[in-house]
Amino acid sequence: MNKPDTRIQKKNQAAILDAGLLVFSQFGFRGSTLDQVADEAGLSKPNLLYYFRSKEAIYTSLLAKLLENWLEPLRELDPQGDPVDELMAYAKRKLDMSQHFPRESRLFANEIIQGAPRIGDVLRGELRELVDEIAVVINGWAAEGRIKAVDPYHLIFSIWALTQHYADFDVQVRAILGDVDPFDGAEKHLEAMLHGLLTP
Amino acid sequence: MNKPDTRIQKKNQAAILDAGLLVFSQFGFRGSTLDQVADEAGLSKPNLLYYFRSKEAIYTSLLAKLLENWLEPLRELDPQGDPVDELMAYAKRKLDMSQHFPRESRLFANEIIQGAPRIGDVLRGELRELVDEIAVVINGWAAEGRIKAVDPYHLIFSIWALTQHYADFDVQVRAILGDVDPFDGAEKHLEAMLHGLLTP
DNA sequence: CAATAATTTGACCAACTGGTCAAAGGCAGG
DNA sequence: CCTGCCTTTGACCAGTTGGTCAAATTATTG
Prior knowledge:
Number of strands of chain A: 0
CATH superfamily of the largest domain in chain A: Tetracycline Repressor, domain 2
Largest interface: A-B, 53 and 53 residues
Helix content of chain A: over 70%
Oligomer: homodimer
Order of helices and strands of chain A: HHHHHHHHHH
CATH class of the largest domain in chain A: Mainly Alpha
Number of helices of chain A: 10
């Protein structure tokens, strides 16, 4: 029964999601209006609602897409690889996302700050399980003496915190750095931090 | 001309600011309504507006108070002290704020994510100057060989990022840690991070 | 206790909100 | 060119929003 989307549908749905991402990531769900999204997408409000059932539908559609990209890098972490390399690679992947998809990061941040009303289940379910698995791996590495003993959970938190900071607090970072590109120094600093934390 | 506030004024203004802090920190300025704040404060909406000119006035009043507490710990950093001790003390001060004043942290986060429309000037002015001064101090310490060479700006960012993460992403952190108190491990991890980053 | 000032409220308003709907406009295949 | 479907829109609606105001209520003070 699902007819494949026409060209026009694809284009407009993409435009709406792109506009929604921009608006929702800045003002959060409650602070955003359909008119803002419609303007940004270059469509009329009723036209938006022809493609999406409701404001909520646009938002949850964005969140769903986001969660995939959010969890994926975690899965790519290879227990067989070199500990420092693996964690560094993960951190860099996250930093790249902050650099190239800051709106996604801010959307996520907004949702969490609001209390994660729509993704709390994923956090307590899928995400937690994933992190638990990785914690086991990291503890294993530490037990083998391949890295220093660290709390794996807080290690992961610090990678998240630092990398997402460059997207979520972009305005503040740039206010302080002036013309210097934040991401130049960020990567080196991230390396230094992980190195100091992990290398025996 | 400024008559001192009566008991009733003090009580109600405090109630309004407390309610405003709760509401604004969760939903941001645009996502919050005066009715929410009024309910939370246990006052009627017109009564709110008897004490504050507008929604904006409540919000900016909160931001002003917040900025003081936000900048103060930075000023307490003593260039004469022991580098690692000083930075560690600063980080712990920030972590304590995240633990005991998470709403303030989230209010700040919301404002920044929105693009800091009301405090951009402070960021580019007062905050930037302060950070610049501290950067000089840190660079001095490094030049004297008392700490490893680090980018002082990104060092400060990582302290901010990590400490505020525990307040702003509280829901996510607790979703992952379950019953474990985040702030137990956080302080130790913060120490480990700074130690690894600073100790030669 | 009366008078004055501070506080609280219900009724109200214009603008905005998310959402509906019937009708009109456009576009493909025959 | 016509038919049928996809797309777009203007008009509209009920509920919410920030904010006003005059009147009522409650302190405070001489």
